[in-house]
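Duplicate of #3305? Posting structure anyway:
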């Protein structure tokens, strides 16, 4: 039996078969090119890469017509030059390029591809073929592009925020600062000092220690750090550093921000200073109100003592009157401060002669001047200086400045009053030789509730509001006030500059403080007040002045008395129980005919005065009552 055998393949054929198998089964896209750039064959991975199969137009075109070295698209993308090196015998890594079959008018998917070109040489070294191995890098490049776009957006966002911002790598090396960083620090990207030259050197070791801990552990970093600006000043910045981690939890980058918190610190300091000044003010107020109460109480006990003779009783009454005036001024100043801070003070403008304003202010200060053994000489020629302003408020300004000079200079020392007309303005200066003002404190002398020296004995007294009122009232007149002092113990001078001819508006409700005078004959006056002491003392005072007085503690009693008494004037407390003073005035007016109605109340603001006018009151007097003001009001009322 004979057997036939297939001939064994030659070594060359076996090698070719192995090459074909390897070529076709390779997981990499492989394209075999001839020495002139034509495509000899492609493997299945190449077909899969470009989405084509046998018989498709793209594959037929590549295998029959396409010459890679003549492709203008590759030339334009800078690939051809690298290919020519491979065809010259050099293994070349081609740069990533975007290939789109549509560019040659063929169907197929577009891809980003990197390729390696390896020449195949004959025994004599000539290049016979070139093998092109492609790698699809579309997803990688798109991811990288997305990452770069994300980083760009992040940096653009970080450049728009008001905070200083920066990005560091996983090891903590800062790679990027936003524009705010450079603007604030005055540094540049090439600054060799780096970021460590910006924090306060005193806290830098603590910052580095905390930063090293975060890098080692991946924990966020929070700390307030003083950072030096380009102007050399240190400002506190709240620093927050957060890690950016990958899916495995490893830190990839650090993102940090520095937020300027100096406004918060300044606001907190201002709040604390405000609290401190408020507490000091309340302590001063309590002291200033208790001080006059002590002599008032003593004088009252003295008046009750059976052994008190006439001169002693007069002196006790003078003490009470003086201390009540002092307390009244404190309350009035407080009310004025309230009105100034709320913008409720307006001015009653009129033509004034400066001589009269100065004379009134000096006269108002006479008791203090006499007690301290001083006089204030009034400059000559003041009657020739015309001024337009609110007389009462300008007198208040000068009186406060004189009061300040008296309190803060030793008894007997001179106080100078100087007036200097300058063009359309006039300068009025009050100069003393007293305790002076520390230069550091001078910018604050016109602030509310501020005094340069506060001691336990409070010998100078006051609430620290007089100079604040001076500044506000002068500014309402369109002027300004300045202080000058060479220093402690060297005296002070306050200069008010007022324009001549200022037009403004002021509250028309003003009580004329005329000198007290007795009427030709007594008036019939009814006083209604639910405070028995106030009712009794006011009635006694009016009777001593020659008036016939009836009193009532409430509206019902007043209405019962009215028909038989027929008063010329009614002095009504507004805060009566049940029927208040406004309502009582309406009911009495029906019986009283042409009587004068005087409101007596503890409320003296404009809305209170306006309400009195609307209720038909002719005058609005504020407690504690100044007898001279009441006497001036009563002097203008004719007796029935």
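Output from current build:
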């Amino acid at each position: 039996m004979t057997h036939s055998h297939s001939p064994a393949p030659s070594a060359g054929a076996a090698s070719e078969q192995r090459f074909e198998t390897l070529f076709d089964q390779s997981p990499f896209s492989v394209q075999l090119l001839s020495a002139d750039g034509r495509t000899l064959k492609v493997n299945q991975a190449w077909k899969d890469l470009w989405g084509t199969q046998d018989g498709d137009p793209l594959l037929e075109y590549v295998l029959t017509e396409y010459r890679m070295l003549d492709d203008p698209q590759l030339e334009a993308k800078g690939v051809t030059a690298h290919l020519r090196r491979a065809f010259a015998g050099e293994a070349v890594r081609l740069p990533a390029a975007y290939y789109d079959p549509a560019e040659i008018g063929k169907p197929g998917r577009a891809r980003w591809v990197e390729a390696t070109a390896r020449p195949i040489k004959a025994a004599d070294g000539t290049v016979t073929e070139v093998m092109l191995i492609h790698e699809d890098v579309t997803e990688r490049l798109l991811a990288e592009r997305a990452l770069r776009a994300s980083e760009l957006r992040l940096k653009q966002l970080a450049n728009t925020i008001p905070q200083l911002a920066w990005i560091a790598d996983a090891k903590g090396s800062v790679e990027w600062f936003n524009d705010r960083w450079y603007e604030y620090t005055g540094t540049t990207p090439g600054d060799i000092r780096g970021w460590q030259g910006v924090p306060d050197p005193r806290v830098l070791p603590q910052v580095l220690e905390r930063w090293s801990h975060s890098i080692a552990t991946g924990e966020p970093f929070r700390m307030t750090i003083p950072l030096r600006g380009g102007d050399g000043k240190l400002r506190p910045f709240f620093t927050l550093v957060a890690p950016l981690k990958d899916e495995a939890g490893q830190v990839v980058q650090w993102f940090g921000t520095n937020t300027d918190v100096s406004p918060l610190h300044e606001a907190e300091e201002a709040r604390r200073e405000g609290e401190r000044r408020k507490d000091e003010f309340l302590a001063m107020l309590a002291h200033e109100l208790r001080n006059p109460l002590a002599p008032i109480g003593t004088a009252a006990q003295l008046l009750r003592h059976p052994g008190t003779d006439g001169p002693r009783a007069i002196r006790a009454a003078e003490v009470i009157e003086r201390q009540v005036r002092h307390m009244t001024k404190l309350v009035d100043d407080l009310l004025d401060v309230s009105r100034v801070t709320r913008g409720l003070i307006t001015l009653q403008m009129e033509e004034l002669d400066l001589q009269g304003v100065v004379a009134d202010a000096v006269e108002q200060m006479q008791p203090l001047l006499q007690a301290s053994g001083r006089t204030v000489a009034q400059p000559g020629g003041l009657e020739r200086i015309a001024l337009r302003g609110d007389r009462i408020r300008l007198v208040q300004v000068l009186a406060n400045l004189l009061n300040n000079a008296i309190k803060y200079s030793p008894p007997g020392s001179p106080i100078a009053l100087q007036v200097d007309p300058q063009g359309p303005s006039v300068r009025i200066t009050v100069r003393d030789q007293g305790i002076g003002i520390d230069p550091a404190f001078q910018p604050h002398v016109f602030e509310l509730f501020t005094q340069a020296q506060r001691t336990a004995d409070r010998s100078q007294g006051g609430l620290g509001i007089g100079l604040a009122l001076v500044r506000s009232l002068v500014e309402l007149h369109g002027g300004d006030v300045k202080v000058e002092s060479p220093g402690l113990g060297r005296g002070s001078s306050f200069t008010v500059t007022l324009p001549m001819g200022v037009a403004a508006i002021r509250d028309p409700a003003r009580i004329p403080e005329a000198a007290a005078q007795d009427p030709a004959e007594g008036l019939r006056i009814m006083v209604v007040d639910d405070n028995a002491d106030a009712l009794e003392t006011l009635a006694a005072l009016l009777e001593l002045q020659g008036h016939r007085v009836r009193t009532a503690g409430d509206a019902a009693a007043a209405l019962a008395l009215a028909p038989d008494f027929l008063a010329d004037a009614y002095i009504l407390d507004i805060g009566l129980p049940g029927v208040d003073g406004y309502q009582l005035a309406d009911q009495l007016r029906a019986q009283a005919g042409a009587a004068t109605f005087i409101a007596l109340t503890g409320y003296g603001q404009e809305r209170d005065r306006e309400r009195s006018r609307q209720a038909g009151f002719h005058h609005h007097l504020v407690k504690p009552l100044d007898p001279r003001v009441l006497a001036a009001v009563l002097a203008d009322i004719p007796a029935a």
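Confirmed duplicate; merging threads. The chain has a mean pLDDT of 81. The two ends are 172 Å apart (CA to CA).
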